[in-house]
Amino acid sequence: MARQTVAAAAQMDHPVTLCIALIWAVSVFLWTGDVEAADEHIDRFIAYAKSRSLGPYLAVGRGVKGELAIRRGDARGGIETIKHSLQQLHEAKYELLTTTFNLAIVEGLLSLGQFEESLALIDETIGLVDRNGNRFYLPELLRIRGKIVLSGPQSRSGEAEIWFNKSLELGRRHGALAWELRTAIELAQLLLKDRRRKEAELLLRPVLDRFAEGSDTADVRAAKRLLESK
Q1: CA atoms of 139 and 144, how far apart (whole Å)
Q2: Contact call for residues 196 and 173 (beta carbons, < 8 A)
Q3: In the chain, which segments carry CATH 1.25.40?
């Protein structure tokens, strides 16, 4: 559907419409773990934004490039790129992707072992979505909050499990199956580490089974690997 939308927008010969289609297509590719498709489409998005002098869109494009850099292992460079883009977007009063970019920075900080900084930013972002009503991201924010607790210098598995369960409950309440699967993977990994394999299977398999046959996102593949592991 994302590819079809981009193709349809390209036929309209309307640059802003095409930019909108491209950036939301990129969000789909990032969600499903197709980094190469995300990179290809964001380069096209940046080229169109630059040729039409669409300043905020250029900042968005560069921010996504920073997110891709973090995913590819360049956490420091990616974080700096996103921070610069966020500064430009704040100045332009464009806040649509603030939560998304904050999440990417948190993941980058976590990969660098900057526990306190990642914890402070995730709490700030949770407060932000509570205030502005952008609660779509809340299940993911709660999952990351649990992940940070688990990754800290004094790993607290009990507290992490509480955060993961909060995320699961909210994802189910919202009918957000993809968020639910992502958290179920995280919690199942924790249960397996505690030698609670049966609980892990009972948690993860029913969520995975609700996906349509042929689904091949990065999260679906990760869930299958986890269930097949010994």
Answers
A1: 9
A2: no
A3: 1-112, 124-230
